[in-house]
Design goal:
There is one protein chain. Helix content is 32%, strand content 23%. It is an alpha/beta fold. The protein has two domains: 129 residues, 2-Layer Sandwich (Enolase-like, domain 1); 221 residues, Alpha-Beta Barrel (TIM Barrel). The chain is globular.
Length: 370
Amino acid sequence: MRIESITLRKLKMRLKSAFETSFGITHDRTVVLVEVLADGLTGWSEVTALEDPFFNSETVDTAWLIIRGFLVPLILGKEIGSAAEIPRIVSAIRGHEMARAGIENAFWDVEAQQKNLSLSKLLGGAQSEIKCGVSLGLQATSEVLLEKVAVELHAGYQRIKLKIKPGKDLEVVRAVRNAHPGILLSVDANSAYTLADLEHLKRFDEFNLLMMEQPLWWDDIANHARLQRHLKTSLCLDESIRHVRDAETALDLGAARIINIKVGRVGGHASAREIQALCLARNIPVWCGGMLECGIGRAHNIAVSSLPGYTLPGDVSASKRYWEEDVIDPPVEVSPRGTIQVPTSPGLGYHIRRDLIERWTTEKETWRAR
């Protein structure tokens, strides 16, 4: 395929309700969309970076600069045989995984359309539907949280994940576990603790959790291995895993029994498939995490979640949980039993709402091959 043009857009999208984690509260999302044109076909993807460098070192603005200044010059006008070639072409760029994923993933959409395949099938997906969980942000009180948990369980979600931080952790989790002793329950700390909190973190073992996600430093694997040796609860790594080498190191050291694969965080579908293959070979369960994506990023997450080894409910939930309107049609919907059907039509499998994209665009830049 010949890469004819690349367009970046910033959209301002308002969340239906604020989402609070250990590193801040989000009311609005600045969504960066990538649109590529190759051989007359249009592919779409989403750059999943946040506005601030609090999840990882990237932001929407740094991703825009890296795409404009480095990625576009490397690939515009090139002839490529498949989307899997993109990582090699841009391999000189260190880090900036979310920027690289934003470019690469759009070409997976194009290639799937070229081959008349769904993105899921092109990636190697084998599931016709995926299991869904929800991630609940920090709440003002345990009572408010319990109300939200009840709503999500009634909607059918198969796993509840609670965001935690020091001062809002044990009591919160205890309240939910006491109210729902049989549900699949996990917690996510987003690096809010240190090894000095070891005795405190050991107390989570009483709650029979599916996992504790990323309790320690975002870039630290060795100390998670030290912590795991003292816990019955399985650790899951998120921010620490940027590529297959990180995943292999974590598994070799015993730092994680579960790995969260976020396609943007690991640099794109090619890297995500390498991590999935490694974990599958070692019988390590994986699941797909979320970054408050709009429907385009969500469609990519649905596709990757259909691959073998994605055995745990991921953070891929319904569009209506976050947005009054989404940029895809139909919006992502979750069945009463907590599943999402994997699209079977070519590419992402959803119609892109250009009308909404244009209405919500605050900045746009296009580069065309000569």
